[in-house]
């Protein structure tokens, strides 16, 4: 890698100029977060059910008594033998965060379409510790616009708030809240590049001169392997 080499004073001048841009970005991010918090909610009427390590549970059960629930929509189709490598890359950032979220009245769960036993076996293989459940039936994934197992090739579907024609399983993050009347509200979902902030490896790589080093690849994550598959 060819880098411009300067003395400390020249570096400090450029670093200070960049700091001003970083502070502006932080302020903009805080404004967006505030707007996100002000979003209204949509009542969630269907009583979705999930297969969990604790037995069959409702969506309300997944809150575990807390006021908020963050759902990671993980691409693992009902007939897949392994989880999506991209979703696995993101999931490497999730283990251990549940206790911190719980301290802020928030539960965290990962939801996929594959049978529970396959999810748990893959979780053990990857060494993760977060709660992972299997949606019973296609309604949950369909309603949150991440899973369309019966979609035919080329048939349109909804993803990231627009109509697309690719993929039966896609990733996302959704936020649900408990309402004062005991119901559940859907407050937020994000997809695509909106998931970038949840990937700690990408955030660290963005600090480096080489960055993500993905330009020139056939697709951005063509370099990626599951954590136990590098060098194989």
Walkthrough of the structure:
- The chain has 232 residues and is of the alpha+beta class.
- The strands form 2 sheets. An 8-stranded mixed β-sheet has the order 1-10-9-4-5-6-2-3. A two-stranded antiparallel sheet has the order 7-8.
- The longest helix is centred in the first third of the chain and has 30 residues.
- The protein is globular.
- The model has no long low-confidence stretch (mean pLDDT 95).
Topology diagram in text:
Layout: H1 8-37, E1 42-43, E2 49-52, E3 55-58, H2 59-62, E4 68-73, H3 85-91, H4 98-102, E5 106-112, H5 116-126, E6 132-135, H6 139-143, E7 157-159, E8 162-164, E9 172-178, E10 184-190, H7 200-205
Parallel strand pairs: 4-5, 5-6
Antiparallel strand pairs: 1-10, 2-3, 2-6, 4-9, 7-8, 9-10
Distance between the termini: 26 Å
User: What share of residues are in beta strands?
Assistant: 15-25%
The value of Rg in angstroms is 20 Å
Oligomer: single chain
Order of helical and strand elements = HEEEHEHHEHEHEEEEH
Structure keywords:
10 strands; single chain; alpha+beta; 7 helices; 232 residues
Concise summary:
The chain is built from seven helices and ten strands. With 232 residues, it is α+β, with helices and mostly antiparallel strands.
């Amino acid at each position: 890698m060819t880098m411009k080499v300067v003395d400390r004073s020249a570096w400090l001048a450029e670093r200070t100029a960049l700091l001003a841009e970083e502070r502006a970005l932080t302020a903009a991010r805080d404004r967006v977060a505030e707007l996100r918090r002000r979003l209204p909610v949509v009542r969630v009427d269907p009583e979705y059910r999930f297969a969990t390590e604790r037995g069959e549970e409702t969506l309300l059960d997944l809150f575990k008594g807390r006021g908020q629930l963050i759902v990671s929509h993980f691409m693992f189709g009902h007939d897949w033998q392994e989880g999506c490598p991209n979703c696995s890359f993101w999931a490497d950032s999730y283990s251990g965060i549940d206790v911190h979220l719980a301290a802020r009245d928030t539960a965290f769960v990962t939801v996929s379409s594959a049978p529970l036993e396959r999810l748990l076996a893959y979780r053990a293989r990857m060494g993760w510790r977060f709660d992972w459940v299997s949606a019973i039936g296609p309604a949950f994934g369909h309603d949150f616009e991440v899973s369309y197992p019966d979609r035919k090739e080329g048939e349109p579907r909804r993803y990231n708030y627009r109509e697309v024609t690719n993929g039966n399983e896609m990733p996302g993050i959704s936020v649900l809240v408990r309402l004062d009347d005991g119901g559940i509200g859907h407050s937020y979902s994000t997809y695509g590049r909106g998931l970038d902030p949840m990937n700690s490896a990408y955030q660290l790589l963005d600090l480096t001169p080489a960055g993500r080093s993905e330009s020139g690849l056939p697709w951005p994550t063509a370099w990626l392997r599951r954590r136990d598959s590098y060098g194989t």
